[in-house]
Amino acid sequence: MSAGGVGTPKSLPSSGPKSLQDMPHPLAGPSSEDIAGGELTPSPDLQLPRSIADKDLSLPNGGTPAGTSSPASSSSLLNRLQLDDDLDGETRDLFVTVEDPKKHVCTMETYITYRVTTKTSRIEFDLPEYSIRRRYQDFDWLRNKLEESQPTHLIPPLPEKFVVKGVVDRFSEEFVETRRKALDKFLKRIADHPVLSFNEHFNVFLTAKDLNAYKKQGMALLSKVGESVKYVTGGYKLRSRPLEFAAMGEYLDTFALKLGTIDRIAQRIIKEEVEYLVELREYGPVYSTWGGLEMELEEPLEGVSACIGNCCTALEDLTDDMTEDFLPVLREYILYSESMKNVLKKRDQVQGEYEAKLEAIALKKEERPKVPAEVEKCQDRVECFNADLKADMERWQNNKRQDFRQLLMGMADKNIQYYEKVKSVKLPE
Q: What is the DSSP letter of 197?
């Protein structure tokens, strides 16, 4: 694929007060801007007792403190930093591929399975290589488990499960291959993540011969952070998001809107190209038939017919490329933005819980009440959400820039190839 002369595409402008590209690394300390205006502190009218006010109970926008770790995370801070810098794959120790789709016809149902191959040098795995078969619902189980156990992190999206019957044949070779690519990308994104890749459910998914045995165990207990998200106080209205996360939410809304527009236009273009292709295929043979009736015109008419046939082939290739390569990336990132917004909402819920606890303490008449341990734990959860969400946003932005640069350059190459193919056939003199 050609890579010359094309720069990195500019990110969408944000209406927020702070550019997402200017966000500090989540593991770094708070910047002067954060301290000046980005932190969320209790409102002026919320007067805390002195013993509580002396404690730092604000919502920091900086990184996670050294003593606070991400929930259910098996990776150390060193591992996280090493893998964040690992853009060329030199230090990767976990490789996952999805391949070899097979159709299974049973009495009750028909479904597709995929071979998932894992190669690793991690000590968490008993063997260096695994090869198992999984179906779509197994991937869906994995994603649900990751959302339960890692609520502070962005979980990569899966391709849509349901298709419109009569419009898309979910057992067609084209559909199965498109889904295989999406599932392969889903697992690769998890395997490259410094926290999700160490999740126990991911390990089980990659290694267990019988995944149903784990599914029958029922819903596992949520992590402490997950419980706080699930059972958070519902009646409390969030005072305000920190400016950085407000800008993040605005960016995601704008990004999803723009991608949705591009997706609709691209689908309309493909639909018109397919309709044009049908007409073109009927148009070409007319000249061949005509040439058979008039011998003196046979050669030029056959030339026209061959030219039209060449245009058909080139247009079909271009349409297939847009359908199989362009549209899936757009849809993946539309789903990605929705997933990120859901994590942002969970962060707001935990912040709301924390603010509610602070107000409850402030309403107490005691002059020097003791700060409950649950309030400090709630503050830790907010800090954890802030750090993990910013780290995942930074990783997502890097992936997005690479993916769209590759996608747009690829489509430019495909369009150049299309016109070169159309131009290659010359009419007879």
A: G
Token pair for 139: 């991937």
- The CATH 1.20.1270.60 portion of the chain extends over 239-428
Banded model confidence at residue 121, pLDDT cuts 50, 70, 90: very high
**CATH (one of 3.30.1520.10, 3.40.920.10, 3.30.420.40, 3.40.50.720) for 92-219:** 3.30.1520.10
From 220, 79, 87, select the one nearest 146 (Cα to Cα). 220
**pLDDT, tens digit, 9 for 90 and up, residues 127-176:** 999 999 999 999 999 999 999 999 999 999 998 875 544 446 778 888 89
**Where are the domain boundaries for CATH 3.30.1520.10 in the chain?**
92-219
In angstroms, the CA 241 to CA 418 distance is 49
Please give the C-alpha separations between residue 401 and each of 342, 398, 404, 406, 409, in angstroms, as whole numbers. Answer: 22, 5, 5, 9, 12
3-state DSSP assignment of residue 146:
helix
The answer to whether 325 and 270 have CB atoms below 8 angstroms apart is no
Spatial distance between the Cα atoms of 345 and 349, rounded to a whole number of angstroms? 6
Rounded Cα distance, 340 and 254, in Å: 13
Task: Name the fold adopted by 239-428.
Answer: Substrate Binding Domain Of Dnak; Chain:A; Domain 2 (1.20.1270)
CA distance 285 to 195: 59
Integer Cα distance of 255 and 334 in angstroms: 8
The CA R_g of the chain, rounded to the nearest whole Å, is: 27
- CA gap 262, 268 in Å, rounded: 10
β-partners of residue 111 are 104
pLDDT band of 226, cuts 50, 70, 90: very low
Percent of the residues in the chain that have a pLDDT greater than 70, as a whole number: 70
Place of tokens 């391709």: 159
Give tens-digit pLDDT for 65-86. Answer: 333 334 443 333 334 333 344 4
Q: How many CB atoms lie within 10 A of CB 174?
A: 12
Q: Sheet containing 129-135: which strands, arranged edge to edge?
A: 94-105, 110-120, 129-135
Which residue, chain included where needed, has tokens 């604000």? 58
